[in-house]
Design goal:
The longest helix is centred in the middle third of the chain and has 24 residues. The protein has a two-stranded antiparallel sheet with strand order 1-2. It is globular. A hairpin with a 4-residue loop joins strand 1 and strand 2. The protein has 18 helices and 2 strands. Helix 9 runs antiparallel to helix 14. By secondary structure, it is mostly helical.
Length: 391
């Protein structure tokens, strides 16, 4: 756990030593906290609640000068990442090969946009919900309350309660005890709230608003390139190979791995949960991002929508390290080694421009309107200012 915490800091060091707000950190969560106070906690954005960013924005605004807010935002996002490692390391979480599973969070390839920032924290905290499927029943009242509180907070932080509530429901049906029923009830209530808000807001579940017909070859190509080709071989292979090759990789490699994971042996129940989670998340994100409408794959656009699927696929490979026949085990180990070696030279993500937050945040301190640049490049906060009575 400590090793992964260090690796996470080394993966994106500038997010900690030169912290800056990222995207909706400032334009939504900071400004709405200023305007609405506690009411912002229950304000939907994109059709659903983002409870953790709201809490972090409120904590920052009530504990420190505005110059320190990016440090608090990123520091708490980092702490929550590490808390996920701690949850996975818990003896109550009944998963094999935990060291490998934990390393997948920081070693799997990606743009890093989901790491150490508040806006994309939901893509990391979704794993708290999945880990509950593998968590043994609580032995104390404190553990029981902690489990339910964790499910409630994370369930109201993004739409993933809608995806993972069926898994907890299936576990509750199979085991039929009070603790699994309570866990399902809490996450089911969060899913109902988030689903009601999406319906009530009339939010378009797909980011693509056009009328183009579905292009299955492109959808499979993007899936194969983002989840397999880039992960194992690097960006050169994504750019060099035609769409049909990546589509074949998606069908052959991903489909083959999922089918193989469902074979009958002692670890089949664990792998079956992961296969179900992978299919739910991948299908939902594919519909949301509509990658089939893209003209090519630049390995940057919408990378957050592939993060969970990429980690889950890595988990399924890691669980084959001790497979029988041994050829499969060695093949899985070589795939993991190839993925790490290929991307090792690019492990530390390049630092973006420093927009000197401390030098330009004084308008927020004084409560006067201003436009303040933040990350990613080309993004800024349109700070509306505060009323004269609250300045």
């Amino acid at each position: 756990m400590l090793g992964c915490a260090v690796l996470l800091a080394l993966r994106k060091p500038w997010a900690l030593h030169t912290p800056q707000l990222w995207a909706e950190d400032g334009s939504i969560f900071l400004t709405q906290d200023e305007e609405m106070g506690l009411r912002a906690w229950w304000q939907p954005y994109n059709g659903y609640l983002h409870l953790l960013p709201r809490l972090i924005a409120w904590i920052a605004s009530h504990t420190a000068d505005v110059a320190w807010w990016p440090a608090i935002y990123n520091g708490l996002a980092y702490a929550i990442n590490v808390a996920l490692f701690a949850r996975l390391a818990s003896r109550r979480v009944e998963l094999p090969a935990k060291a490998g599973l934990m390393l997948a969070f920081v070693l799997v390839v990606g743009t890093g946009e989901v790491l150490i920032n508040v806006t994309n924290l939901q893509w990391v905290t979704a794993f708290f919900l999945l880990l509950q499927v593998f968590t043994a029943r609580p032995e104390t009242h404190a553990q029981r309350v902690g489990d339910l509180a964790l499910l409630a907070v994370v369930g109201l932080n993004g739409p993933f309660a809608l995806l993972f509530a069926p898994l907890l429901g299936w576990r509750a049906w199979r085991e039929r005890n009070l603790d699994t029923l309570l866990a399902f009830a809490v996450l089911g209530a969060c899913a109902a709230v988030q689903g009601w808000l999406v319906t009530r807001a009339g939010a378009n579940l797909s980011l693509h608003a056009g009328t183009e017909p579905f292009r299955p070859l492109m959808a499979l190509s993007i899936t194969g390139s983002r989840l397999v080709t880039w992960t194992v071989l690097g960006p050169w292979a994504v750019r060099a190979w035609p769409f049909a090759v990546h589509a074949a990789i998606a069908v052959g490699c991903i489909g083959g791995l999922l089918a193989w994971a469902l074979r009958r042996d002692a670890r089949r129940p664990v792998r079956a949960w992961l296969v179900a989670a992978f299919c739910l998340v991948t299908a939902a994100c594919a519909y949301r991002v509509r990658a089939d409408t893209w003209q090519d794959d630049n390995l940057v656009n919408g990378d957050r929508y592939f993060y969970i699927s990429r980690v889950l696929l890595a988990w399924l490979v890691i669980l084959e390290w001790n497979a029988i026949p041994r050829a499969v085990a060695w093949g899985a180990r070589l795939l993991c080694i190839a993925g790490v070696v290929t991307h090792a030279p690019f492990f530390t993500l390049p630092a973006p421009p420093d927009y000197k937050w401390a030098e330009h945040c004084d308008p927020i301190r004084r409560g006067v309107p201003a436009n303040i640049h933040t990350l990613p490049e080309g993004w800024w906060i349109e700070y509306p200012g505060r009323s004269p009575e609250t300045r």
